[in-house]
Amino acid sequence: MMWNSPQAGSVAGSGRETAIDDPVSGRIMVIDDDPHFLRVMQRLLSGEQFEVVASSNPCEAVALLTSGSFDLIICDLRMPECDGLSLLQTIRNQGNATPVVILTAYGEVDTYLEAMNAGATEFLNKPMQSDDLLRVVRNCLRRNNHRRNAKRPDPV
């Protein structure tokens, strides 16, 4: 797995430079049964100033999800106690609309379709480049923020 730091680019427009990757923040739950991968993910995301809660136990993760608020969930597909699809279905059945990114080293088309139909926001194959992962994370967090802001009533 490659973990390269992303380079922030800029776009010229109307006489000033604008960062492509505007700062975005969020609380992220990462669920993976591989402790090394979990540590790498936690270090990468924390280094980008995201608040990260990591769990190697999907059953524990469900309890954490019901007791706290998260802006994004990143979950491995294949885990011994509970697979990512079952976890995703549990999350959606609880009425939780938090974006969920499914990660897998087994990128089969049928699995992709099943995950997307179950309500996954994104589906990424392992190994992935860190800049690709961070781009997906930022996009999911931005869309989630826009969705929440659209649901808020206008101030009077």
Report on this model:
The structure is a single chain. The chain is of the alpha/beta class and 156 residues long. The chain has helices at 35-47, 58-67, 84-93, 109-117, 130-151; strands at residues 10-13, 16-19, 27-31, 51-55, 72-76, 100-104, 122-125. The strands form 2 sheets. Strands 4-3-5-6-7 form a 5-stranded parallel sheet, sandwiched between helices. The protein has a two-stranded antiparallel ribbon with strand order 1-2. Helix 1 (35-47) links the parallel strand 3 (27-31) and strand 4. The model is unreliable at 1-20 (pLDDT under 50).
Summarize, please.
The protein has 156 residues and is of the alpha/beta class. It is 41% helix and 21% strand. It has one domain (24-151): 3-Layer(aba) Sandwich (Rossmann fold).
SSE order and pairing:
Blueprint: E1 10-13, E2 16-19, E3 27-31, H1 35-47, E4 51-55, H2 58-67, E5 72-76, H3 84-93, E6 100-104, H4 109-117, E7 122-125, H5 130-151
Parallel strand pairs: 3-4, 3-5, 5-6, 6-7
Antiparallel strand pairs: 1-2
Helix pairs in contact: 2-3
